[in-house]
Amino acid sequence: MQPTLVILAAGMASRYGSMKQIQSFGPSGETIMDYSIYDAIRAGFGKVVFIIRKDFADQFKEIFEPKLTGKIKTDYVFQDMNSFTNDFVIPAERTKPWGTAHAVLCAKSAVKEPFAVINADDFYGRDAFEKAVTFLTTDCSEQLYSIIGYELEKTLSPHGTVSRGVCDVNANGELVAINERVKVYKKDSAIVYEDENGVHVIPDECKASMNFWCFHNAVFKMMEAQFSDFLRHNLSNPKAEFFIPIVGDEFIKSGSGKIKVIPTSSQWFGVTYKEDAPGVQQNVSDLVRSGQYPPSLWQ
Predict the structure, then answer these.
(1) Considering Cα of 9, then 15, then 123, then 154, what sign does the dihedral take?
(2) What is the CATH number of the domain that holds 281?
(3) What is the reported pTM?
C-alpha cells in the first residue's frame, strides 16, 4: 500500500502577510508545494491530501489539478472550526482555526493508510521524502511513528530570529520531547536561543522538527480523543491551539508507542519573512541549475 502525503495548507500566513502557499518560486511558476509533491511522487507516495480553507478551494484546485491529474491521486479537505467539536459550543470570540493537529484530524475520512504530514510553505528536500516512504512502508505501525529531524543550522533565516522545535532524542534515536525555542539564531559559530533567562547555546547535534511527521492512520482515534480533552480545558481561550507536537508528546508519555527521529541532510528553506522570498527563489534556481529538478516540473 502506497502511503499518503497530507499537506497543511490552511494557514493564514499572518507573519508573511500573503497567501504564500500558492506563491510562485520556480522558473516555470512552481510553488514550494509543487516541489514537495514532485519529491513525494518520485519517492513513492500514492496520494496527496490538501487541507485547505474552503474560501480559496476553487482557486487552489485551478492551480493544482491541471498539474497533478494522471500523476498522483488528489483529495481536498477543509479545516472547519466546528469539525469534531461535538456538543461543545464555540465562543463567538474564537475566530482562528484550532491548530495543526486539528487540521490533520479533519483529514480523517480521506486517509486510510500510513501517511506523512508536511507544511505547505516549507521546502523539505528529496532525501526527506525518500526516508519518509521507507519508514512508512517498512517500519510504521500503531506503536511506532516518526519525525524527520533537520540539522538546526540548515533551518535558520538570515533575516531574523526563528522559532524552532528542538528534538530531545534518547540513545536509541527516539523522540523524548520537542522543546519549543523562540528567537533562535546564529551567533558567531554557535546556534543560540533567547528566553527570559538570557542567551543559551543549542548543541550542534540537536535536530530540529520542521513539522514533517509520519503516522499510522490509527493516530486519528487518539487525536479525536485528545481534541475533545483539549476543548474541555481550552474552549474559552481564543488563542489556544491543538498542535501536532501535543499529540506526539501524549503518544510517548502515555506509553502508547515510540517516535523515531530520522535524520536528514536535506537543506530546509522557507518563507518565514517576506525578505526570505528572494533567497528561496535563488535556492530553487540553484537546484534546477545543478540538475536536481527539471526547469519545468510538470511538463
Answers:
(1) negative
(2) 3.90.550.10
(3) 0.92
